[in-house]
Amino acid sequence: MKSKLLTRIMLVSLLALTLIGASAFAFPVNSPVGFATYPSLGMSGITGGGNGETVVVTNIADLQKHASSPEPLTIFVKGTITGSRDVHVESNKTIIGLGDDATLKWFGLRADGAHNIIIRNLTITDVRTDDAIALRDCHHVWIDHCDLHKAKDGLLDFTLGSDFITVSWTIFREHDKVSLINSGTNHWEDHNKNRNTYYYNWFKDNVQRNPRVGYGLGHVFNNYYTNITSYAIGTHTRAKVLAENNYFFNTNNPFQQMYNHNDWEANYGDLESVGNIFENSRGNTTGTGKSFDPSFYYDYDFILSDAAAIPNLVSTYAGPGAAFEHLVIPVPGNGTVDLAVNEPELTWVDTREVESWNVYFGTNTTLNRKANVTEPVFNPGKLQPNTVYFWRVDAVTADGEIKGELWRFRTAPALASKPQPANGSQPMPYDQADAVSAKPLELDWAAGLGAVAHDVYLGTTPELDENNLLGRVEESSFAPGRLQLGETYYWRVDTVLADGTIVPGETWSFELPVLYIGAGRTEAEDMVIGGRYFKEHHPASPGAYLVPSNYWLVKVEAGTGTLSAVWNDPDTVCDLTIAYLDQSSGRGVITVYVNDEQVDRIVATKNTNQIETHTIENVELKTGDEIRVVGSSDQSMLTRIDYIEIAVK
């Protein structure tokens, strides 16, 4: 067994040397890169079943038994397993095929509300149940070196509030609806989630959804597209996708705006095309020119290839193979940035039969051996800020020493960094808290190296002192409460070290938008929009059933949105009227606030499909008060607002 293992590992090393010559990076055989490794939601990386128990399964009963068990587990699949019901996968599982022929047939894998899952080196085909792989409300998932084809619905769907997935070296072929990131519009639970990385995959002879991304951030790089008939990458509902160094061959519509081409609409998405090659392809090859910067979340330059190299690399190495039946994964993940622990424990998962490991560590790729360990953990000592560290572990087995791949991570700067809201920006003052409520903006940042706590300062002048101290927190986030619209705020985060030393941070700023109003009508589209409210145009046309004031409404896409304005007239008592669309079905809730005081709550259930009005009498307003409308949607009724009107008494 061990000699066969060594042969397969040597094959991996041979592949690595081949790829180094082809694309100038060491083949990332065992370790994922991208959002699956991002430290969040209580996880510092992805480990799957970790270094726990291992089992080999050859039938669906054993696969279901072990996949649904509560303990961390690595499950090796041997041969072909058939079944008529999907296998449910719980958290902390690795499911990996042995050899090059491990196959799941007629059924798929499904996870609900789970995390830390690795699926590798499997063929899943002829699925009669639903999806080949369905992940709902899951986070931190890695799909690698699989072959997915012929399913009743999707091949890989990542939906219903899921987050942090990496998909690599996988073949998606001969299918219609290939891969969803989000299950469609009107899903409040997907807001600020659905972060995904796809690299070195082969999308072959498919129709659509390669993938289709809604709501979240998508990084799609170094993939190979061949013979795509409808569209390759789709975007919608505020998604931001960077399509980078991919190769499109004989592809219709490499990029597709799914639902709306107006950038003010809720279901509009952005996509930026960088370094792609389009051969014998047609349709949209430009996108919108906007996306996001993945290096904010992880490093990946060390595995990025030119698009010209992709056909050979992906067609040669994507999909299952005997070389991929084991894992060696580092924590922190390969390409991790902003590691804030000053003396971290470096750990790794190794599913091979290993007696010990020689650990190499340093600040350049020429590494020095630091230790031999019999447990997968190493403490490198105190680290320097904002420094890239390289390391590897060479496995010592009964058959000899096996050189590991090169890993890297970057430590955090000495100071807190990456402020959100971004320095100098004008953010929305409110965001969705959940399906029925909104919250004021929160302050977020990346912790400085060695931080055990943070002192947070906020004020309206650049000179911040003890009077501006909001508090001390351990996490890298602070909720300051409702802030004044139209104000420029300055803030700072000081890093508190374990010995009590305080490292002062930089001073950042942001400006909140504002609309000042007086008596009379204020159109909803002119107010300060927050959360999930978006503009909607209704141009005048003969026989139109709906003609809103000024031909515009705002609507909740899903969840909760806010509309705000500041009273700029003298103190008064007034009647405040709100005009809203009571749709033909569903239930909408509209709550009206003056500052933090709720003055009324309107429930729209008449279902007249007409503009209705509701008047709130004797509302007291003082100069500078914020009038805020909070609308929530049950997906059937999108709680559209037309205007507010103020009549002074």
- For this structure, what is the CATH homologous superfamily of the largest domain? Single-stranded right-handed beta-helix, Pectin lyase-like
Q: The biggest beta sheet, please?
A: 10 strands, parallel
* Spatial extent as radius of gyration: 27 Å
Q: What's the count of strands?
A: 56
- Overall average pLDDT: 95
- End-to-end separation in angstroms reads 89 Å
The CATH topology label of the largest domain is: Pectate Lyase C-like
Question: Helical stretch count?
Answer: 3
Low-confidence stretches: 1-24
Q: What percent of residues are in strands? A: 35-45%
CATH C-level of the largest domain: Mainly Beta
CATH architectural grouping of the largest domain: 3 Solenoid
Query: Helicity range of the residues?
Result: under 10%
Strand order of the largest sheet: 1-2-5-8-11-14-17-20-23-26
Question: What gross morphology would you assign?
Answer: globular
Going by helix content, strand content and strand pairing, the class is mainly beta
Number of domains: 3
Your description of this structure?
With 649 residues, the protein is mainly β. A ten-stranded parallel sheet has the order 1-2-5-8-11-14-17-20-23-26, with helices on one face. It has a nine-stranded parallel sheet with strand order 3-6-9-12-15-18-21-24-27. It has an eight-stranded parallel sheet with strand order 4-7-10-13-16-19-22-25. The termini are far apart. The model is unreliable at 1-24 (pLDDT under 50).
